Records
---
Amino acid sequence: MPVNFFDDTIKREGLRVRVVFMGTSEFAVPLLEQLVLNGYPIVAVYTQPDRAAGRGRALVTSPVKRVAVERGLTVAQPASLKTSQAVKKLALFQPDVIVVAAFGQILPVSVLTIPAHGGLNIHPSLLPTFRGASPIASAILYGGEFTGVSVMLLDKGMDTGPVLARAQIPISSWDTIGSLSAKLSLVGAQLLLEILPRWVQGELTPQRQDESQATYTRMLGKKDGEIDWLLSAIGIWRRVRALNPWPGCYTRWQGKQLKITESVPFSTERNVNIGRVAALDKGEAVFGVGTGVGVLGVLKVQLEGKRVMTAAEFLRGQKEFIGAVLPS
């Protein structure tokens, strides 16, 4: 049921529950912000260490750290929580519960036994499907109509703990990992606010996951974005969405990386060889590429070193592109 973020009961309970929050990516930000806005004392925020990124290798802080600093919260960034020193430091915060969302580390049992109410993980899938590192991208890649969020009690496994609550949402045909992640983070924040006071009051019974239905995902990297034109148009279209904005789906043109940032599948199109670029007259899809099954209509691209542009804009500057054969 919908959560009233300003419900007095939730606020009253929030003042009694000391929370250590653990998160790193943008997905975790709305959850942290809603806990703060609803009166939960955040005694510490744990996030991944700052990392060098970009050509200049400048240190970049996580989205969660930036919000925590703005809020004046205590921030901890241990490289690992498996050392006795890290466990002792965490215990000094005396948390009643640990809330985890897209943190990037598996918590050892020595950490999970510190809070009286254990650790709650907000996982962006309908567990036990899509356990692991890339549940949102996998939901798009596998062509599901629905996905969701699960709040589970952490144990020593990877997303194997008993589930306290789930919430389901549809996947739009235009959803990318970016847009779907934003939706799921808001749903996760609502679900957490609904179940956290009930959990600490002993009103919820965790439900074991059905191991026979479990599926696992792996960490995706830049190499996963390279397009194999032998795949179907629908499969490549899903991949374009599932890897947008990072790492992006790409092919190569004249020695440069060419990202396809928006596309549409035409599974019934024929007579276009695999990898060959053909002119189309289908709205914004002014050109397409032959695939193993059908043609991938291209709507937007980004040539290496350039901005994102429409397919029509790109063609105006690349007169030899129609008829080219892209590598698989």
Note: The mean pLDDT is 93.
---
Amino acid sequence: MPHATQPSTFRRLADRLLWLLPARLRTDIPVVPVVRLTGVIGVSTPLRPGLMLSTLARSLERAFGVRNARAVALIVNSPGGSPAQSHLIHRRIRDLAAEKKIPVLAFIEDVGASGGYMLACAADEIICDPYSLVGSIGVVGGSFGFPKLMDKLGIERRLYTSGERKAMLDPFLPEKPEDVKRYKAIQKDIHEQFIALVRERRGDRLKGADKLLFSGEFWTAPKAIELGLADALGDLRTTLRARYGEKVRTPLISAERGLLGRKQPGVTLNALLDRPGLTDEALSTLEARAIWGRYGF
């Protein structure tokens, strides 16, 4: 009989010892690591690393590698940007979720639009603030044209290419209808792939007509939920506590820091001394502001 009570004695002792361990080492406290996906996607300079797979890969791997994680939470606040970088990040999240068999929850803050919505679609559920802007499933591109200004200033454009399409949509040359047609065909191809991704991830939850859903329009969260583009209203803290208990831990998984305390990758001394680099920084900031500006931010 003493042998029969031994396991329960050890169990009680183990339960008591758990309280002596730091919270991060305890297996009885649920953990949901959090990764922030904030900013314009693909717009990057030495001084301002953008939202790109290269800057996020390590954080994502660390988040999905957290021991005893019940889920991984993504905080999405992005107006979009590069389609390729959006898809690369989306694909890495889905690959890690399948590998680790961990559910993913996306929490949209101000904006989850265009490429930002593609990031949110990497989650199994999309949860929004009532004031979040969601959608913009489309493709946009643009540039400036300066041929008239060049004529006025008496500047001659000299351009040498090999390949008749190499100088397509050059801003210093008059716009050609055939170039615009080719560019729109590329946009259409990207748009169709985006639509296929949303259909794959959202499935039967989509409720609106294709002409509306995939028009490039965006909506506030309640309408997005009605259309099946999102699942519920809520915030990270309240939602995770309701699902996993008041003691749930939500560690923020950010980029690792180097010896000097800065996040990797980051600015170098050469970048600070490089005047053209500072010009690129200013231009990238203007580009990012223009993308945010589409949504009133």
Note: Strands lie at 34-38, 72-78, 104-113, 125-128, 133-135, 218-220, 232-233.
